[in-house]
């Protein structure tokens, strides 16, 4: 019979030893229960200074380049658990950092506390994160979206990988940020975080309502000693509460002249430093945050909040008074900068530089370099005394421009001089209408052009893409051609006859695009690879004819038949660009030019030039594509324009999107363009994207058949002329080319 337990010599069980065994077993059971209970209580989704989860530590190691699965395998993790000292030892060994990181070592199985881990982690960052991809920065949590795992902070929006319950709104943390993601954080008692330059709406029911980052927030706050409503403040948070509010009291008022990333120029004050993040608050009507680009350059009297020596916020207290447009006058080679600027005038003109004013007699030449001796010297303002026109001249005094109304502002930059013509919008249009459309066209066509030009100009006022130079537009085809033709009475007549009239759609002034000649159809904004059709609901594919029978021109066969024939019903059929043809030659020189264009356009707008290597993998470079083998039209719009052109090379393909890119690339391959009237023109860009082609195997060339001139969107100018000749009014013309619009006075 087997023995169980320990039996004494006399065969009896030793009672004392049995009691001891029972006691020890009880203690062991109790200890196991305690440990088990303690382990269960260690909820790793809740913050604890004494330990952290291994998964949390792994997320913080994202910067190392190792995948999460690799770390889990290394640490033998079946599920999340406490990070232990043995784990740290493995991490340091894996990173080759054992001998470089110091810390107080303890038993392998012991959980490591947060302070020790953060000390180790900071040493790892200093050792391995040489590009400083991880930054530890204070973050105030303004709003948390647990579903999307996103937080709004005083510095913007971040994703987060830390447990959701770690983050509480209105609390401040020291966050480890990596690629716009919070990968770890520290809690620090008494940490102060500032919410800068908020617009303070007011206090109600012990809650402060403020606008910041485009959002309205409410924070618990007892009544403050002064009324802060309508002011800009810094709000200081500590341990989840507002403990101090600093009101920004100094303000200045004036027109915004120029703005860039470093400075802001205010009429009467000159250039001032600006905050990197510069909030703009609209205080009339519904209070909301806007963007610096929403300020209408030169047409908006606004309030600037100043702290120290920089502008830290802007208040828009009333709508813009859209009266003047500021035109950047490009140099003869189409560049922004000039080597020098000389001004002359038929009559007296006034020059203002800083606090100095001088009057020059008619015919006197003024050299702006006499005031602007070096870059950053402010600007010179030149105005005719009695409304005379002023002229740009060369150093000898010979005029190099037609006359300008309004005034000139000239600034000097390191690259050269920049000239702005500040002119009333209606006067601007006098020189746009006949720069864009021949003066001998029908008056109703010219009136339609005037309303288009005015609508387009007002839209550009609201965008101010040249804000860094203090301009809304330039004087080239980038916007509207300005003052490039002799001044005519008919231009003044048609502008005056339509004075103030603009086109609106849904209450908004439309961006009234126009172009020279259609192929018989207008296009919609798909030709620009625009996937947001709601931007331009007034732009529809339209047959430029009294005959509105639909044509299915997205079909290749149907388009070929249409473009190789003549549609006599079209309003612009008399234009010599209505039909044209040319030949594309794939010579080495021409193919190299095309590759260069692809590279430049790829850099400007990458999504419109898609490059693939020989395996079909996306690439960013045209280098190594090799010889151009063939061309294929992949997609065509309903109006007939090519939307997607595929170029097949020896070692890859290029997919060209957007009408301008397509025309520019193919323009490298062609030379003479044969027009409908039998004449020939040399062109560096294909006349339009409404074309098809056929390949000649004998010559290795493509014969291209096309129609129209320009982007094809909006109003065809020659179509408008054809309609006017048939008796259509300018309002008929505009309603034909633009859908669901109203023609009404501005304002």
Task: Provide structural commentary.
It is a single chain. This protein is an alpha+beta fold. The strands form 9 sheets. A 7-stranded mixed β-sheet has the order 22-21-24-26-27-19-28. A 6-stranded mixed β-sheet has the order 1-5-6-4-3-2, covered by helices on one side. Among the domains are: 54-132, no CATH class; 250-316; 324-502, no CATH class; 562-706, no CATH class. α7 (443-461) runs antiparallel to α12 and α10 packs antiparallel against α11. The protein is built from 13 helices and 43 strands. A hairpin with a 2-residue loop joins β29 and β30. Helices cover 21% and strands 31% of the residues.
Taking pLDDT < 50 over at least 5 consecutive residues as the criterion, the unreliable ranges are 1-13, 32-40
Computed structural class: alpha+beta
How many strand elements? 43
The oligomeric status of these chains comes to: single chain
Helical fraction: 10-25%
The end-to-end span amounts to 111 Å
Query: Largest beta sheet, briefly?
Result: 7 strands, mixed
The main sheet orders its strands as: 22-21-24-26-27-19-28
Q: What is the gyration radius calculated from CA atoms? A: 36 Å
Amount of beta strand: 25-35%
Tally of DSSP helical segments = 13
Mean pLDDT figure: 92
Q: What is the 3D shape? A: globular
Short description:
The protein contains 13 helices and 43 strands. The chain is α+β, with helices and mostly antiparallel strands. Among the domains are: 79 residues, no CATH class; 67 residues; 179 residues, no CATH class; 145 residues, no CATH class.
